[in-house]
Amino acid sequence: MDIQIKVEDAVIHVALTGSLNAATAGELEEALTPHLAGAAEVQFDFTELEYLSSAGLRVLMMTYKRLGGTGVRIDGACDEIREVFDITGFSALFDIR
Predict the structure, then answer these.
(1) Where are the alpha helices (DSSP H) in 1-97?
(2) pLDDT value of position 59
(3) N or C: which terminal CB in the chain sees fewer CB atoms within 10 Å?
(4) CA–CA separation, 11 vs 42, rounded Å?
(5) Based on the number of CB atoms within 10 Å of its own CB, is 67 exposed (0-12), middle (13-18) or buried (19 or more)?
(6) How distant is the alpha carbon of residue 35 from its chain centre?
(7) CA 96 and chain centroid, separation
(8) CB neighbours (10 Å) of residue 87?
(9) Angle at Cα 64 formed by Cα 61 and Cα 70, nearest 5°?
(10) pLDDT tens digits for range 58-82
C-alpha cells in the first residue's frame, strides 16, 4: 500500500493506493497518528484503494475517536468499499462522498 499524507492547517489529507488490510493497517496508523493532535478533519482519498478489511476499519475508527467522533471524510470509495461501510454501519459515522 502507498500512503500519501498532506497537512493543511487542521485538515489532514490521506491518499491510499492498494489494499488496507491486516498487513498494512499498522503502517497507516503509524504514519497518521503523529498528525492527529490538533487536527479538525481527516480526509481520506480512496480513489486508488482496491480493498478494505476489518483491520483497515479499525484504523478509521481509531481516527474517528481521536477526533472526538466527527471530522472523518471518505472520498472516491468504489462500490465494493462503500458496501463494506454500509454492511458494518460505518456509513452512519463517516462523511462518505
Answers:
(1) 25-36, 54-66, 79-88
(2) 97
(3) C
(4) 6
(5) middle
(6) 13
(7) 11
(8) 9
(9) 145
(10) 999 999 999 998 999 999 999 999 9
Please give the grid coordinates belonging to residue 35: 498528525
- Rounded CA-CA distance 9/41 in Å is 10
81-84 long-range Cβ contacts below 8 angstroms, 24+ apart: 81/46, 81/49, 81/51, 81/52, 84/52, 84/57
| 2-8/11-20 β-pairing | antiparallel
Angle at 6 between CA 42 and CA 33, to 5 degrees: 55
pTM of the predicted model, to two decimals? 0.94
How many whole angstroms separate alpha carbon 38 and alpha carbon 74?
20
